[in-house]
Amino acid sequence: MLFKKLPVIFCTVLFLNTTYADQSVVIRSPDGNIRLSVNNKNDGSVVYDLSFKNRTVIAPSQLGFAFKLPELSLNRFDIITIDSSSTDETWRPVWGELSSIRNHYKQLVLQVRDRTGSGIMLKIVFRVFNDGIGFRYEFPKQDKLNYFVIADEFTQFAMTGDHKTFWIPGDYDTNEFAYYTTRISGIDATGGGKAQEISAKTFYDKNAAQTPLMMKTDDGLYINIHEAALVNYPAMNLIIDKSTNTFRSHLVPDAVGNAAYLQAPAVTPWRTIITSDKATDILASKTILNLNEPSKIKDVSWIKPEKFVGVWWEMHVGKSSWDYSGGQVGSQQATRVPHGANTANVKRYIDFASKNGIPAVLVEGWNTGWEDWFGNWKEDVFDFVTPYPDFDVKGLSAYARSKGVKIIMHHETSASVTNYERWMDTAYKFMKKYGYDAVKTGYVGRIIPRGEHHDGQWMIRHYVRVAQKTANYHIMVDMHEPVRPTGLQRTYPNWLACEAARGNEFNAWSVGNAPDHETILPFTRLMGGPMDYTPGIFKIKMSYYNPEKKEQVHTTLTKQLALYVTMYSPLQMAADLPENYEVHMDAFQFIKDVAVDWDDTRILDAEPGDYVIIARKAKGKASWFLGAITDENARNFTTSLDFLDPGKKYVATIYHDAENASWNDNPEAYVIDKFIVDKATSLQLKLAPGGGTAISLLPATANDLKKFKEYR
Ligand code: NOJ
Ligand code: CA
Asked: What is the pLDDT of residue 16?
């Protein structure tokens, strides 16, 4: 690691323990394209501004807090010291989109003291990368500050205009909203409050939006605001002042209205601004990961990215139920249907997984409690160790083992988190006893302790505790309905994925996800970390299950395949039913082949809300996979395969929309072509409305070279 002191440019000369009016300091990214300037004005405010290639990204914006204890506004400071340094290091993630990641930045540390006389000192730390910045507040150990309570944080992000924005409503409890694409002036969170399909939501301000927030300026700058390393602090929402296009942070409060309880030394999460004139750079950014701490787990040999199938979609489409009595509590289904997690049915999924090389099977609805699991804000719901009488936990774990398959545990907490905390150790021991090494948790409903929110400090601490505790048991975890991720998968690599956004399941029982949804998610939710989106739905229209149903998945079948590449996750579900795959085994071949862990990733082309094209190289292998998706518009692309190894021939298996396919009229029509390609090949991709293309590129054998034609 290279760590050295750097000269910084001062507009005013600074000396230790001396304060001056209107001092500013400028620091540039390693490549010089990003310029950060921090200014201590004569009124004591500290403002920062940011530019990319001489274009303003963030106009002068204030920093600071409202403290509850001691009660004061912390936004007028004297600068005590300014330090700068530079880091250039490379690290290897346990799993990820790349085999190694460069962490290259310049750092500026301002030590400041409250000017109003409290004596409180803090540090404001900025890191400037080639694709953006991160900054955070640090409260060092000091005589004048021990325990303290933050009422709110007032970090501003002043935009230079009324940019195009991809946003979801600000909320304390959910991130499962559909995206809106409007100007900044069009942000209005009241629609979120009305989203009937979301069970627990807390509307609080019509001008509030959530991060990751994605923007595009009229002159083509892309700007993404989010946070990194959210631990022991509430999540940050943004509230817009439309008269100045300025966002300010708003922290999710707790049950009594405070934001954060801290003890010095303490640090806040990093506030991140990723920016570029190329949309592809936003998706390629590793800044949020780089701002997180290295893995706290020493032995990571047991952590394995994997694909899985599950007794799951059949409940969402109303074919079976979570609860034993078949009453379908919480699934909008009035008629009685069979209990899904019965031994015979689970064996069917195990057989399918085993036959097709899928390592794991998720089983939901295996444990007692689903008859009355949400809506009543009741504390004792599930015990996580008592199976329904028709789920033979012992027999099934032996059966799964004999077939070389793992069962993934399901812990729906129904947001009764106090109850889950009491059961966690018992539940994880139960898992180990029966050979389970991964758990999907869930937090549907209003949180208990009552009054707490999904995104408040209490719950943030809970999610991290679950990651730590599961790690102690060598258990991998996938969380549904948690706070949206902030790169903590670097620190807790057993925390493989989260839902934390509107997943594919909304297509089964609600208005669903518009065709542009999956082109927005990589620029928003996935900036923080992998998503358990549950792709791979082949039966697109829900009328197949019940003629009265109007719901549908808003994509074509081959777009569902492309999502395995465009929607990065080390945990990918093949979400549809075995019987729906069995009639399309030719298309299912892509799901069998596609990797979940990668040595290399190339963002080939992308535009938020329109299209995304990504190619990835399988970890430790010569094979590549390419995914291309579009919104509701048909699109054609010419895509060069120049990322392939020189001198090598590959068989490209191209899974694409049929000529007359479209997400609404003819979503399941696809064609599979095979050609010989190499580095010099350019492919013509034709995507149907709401469509996509998935391509596997496997090294060609001598036989392949005889059998398939060169692509032309
Ligand atoms: C919501 C989760 O997102 C979904 O995957 C799960 O099946 C249900 N909750 C029940 O736990
Ligand atoms: Ca969910």
From this structure: 35
265 preceded by a cis bond (ω within 30 of 0): yes
| Ligand number nearest to the C-alpha of 478 | 1
Cα separation, 142 vs 136, in Å, equals: 18
| Fold entry, domain 2-290 | Beta-galactosidase; Chain A, domain 5 (2.70.98)
Atom of ligand 1 nearest to the CA of 312: 7
Is the model's pLDDT at 183 over the cut of 50? yes
Widest Cα–Cα separation across the chain: 82
User: Which residues form the pocket of ligand 1, taking CB atoms under 6 Å from any ligand atom?
Assistant: 312, 364, 412, 442, 444, 480, 499, 503, 505
Give the domain 530-547+555-577+593-712 fold. Answer: TIM Barrel (3.20.20)
Is the whole model's pTM more than 0.90, yes or no?
yes
Whether the CB-CB separation of 616 and 96 falls below 8 Å is answered with no
For residue 11, pLDDT beyond 50: no
Domain ranges for the chain: 2-290, 530-547+555-577+593-712
Tell me the DSSP string of 587-646: HHHHHHH--SSEEEEEEEEEETTTEEEEEEEETTSS-EEEEEEESSS-EEEEEE-TTSPT
Taking the centre of ligand 2 as the mean of its atom positions, its distance from the CA of residue 368, in whole angstroms, is 20
Tokens describing residue 391 = 């789920």
Closest C-alpha residue for ligand 1 atom 11: 412
Contact 630, 610 (CB under 8 A): yes
Token pair for residue 465? 């505790």
Place of tokens 């204030």: 62
Q: Which of 176, 481, 505, 551 is catalytic?
A: 505
pLDDT in tens, 650-681: 999 999 999 999 999 999 999 999 999 999 99
Report the SS3 class of residue 291: coil
Ligand 2 ion: Cβ-proximal residues, 5 Å cutoff: 480, 499
Task: Give the Å distance between the CA of 612 and the centre of ligand 1.
Answer: 27
Query: Is the Cβ–Cβ distance between 74 and 83 less than 8 Å?
Result: no
Q: What are 52-61's pLDDT values in tens digits?
A: 999 999 999 9
Q: Is 551 a catalytic residue?
A: no
Q: Which residues fall within 8 angstroms of residue 518, CB to CB, at 6 or more apart? A: 533, 555, 559, 563, 566, 567, 612, 629
Specify the pLDDT at position 194: 83
Ligand 1 atom nearest 412 alpha carbon? 11
Closest CA to 263 of 425, 141, 173: 141
**Residues whose CB is less than 8 angstroms from the CB of residue 350 and which lie 6 or more positions away in sequence, other chains included:** 361, 396, 399, 400, 403, 405, 407
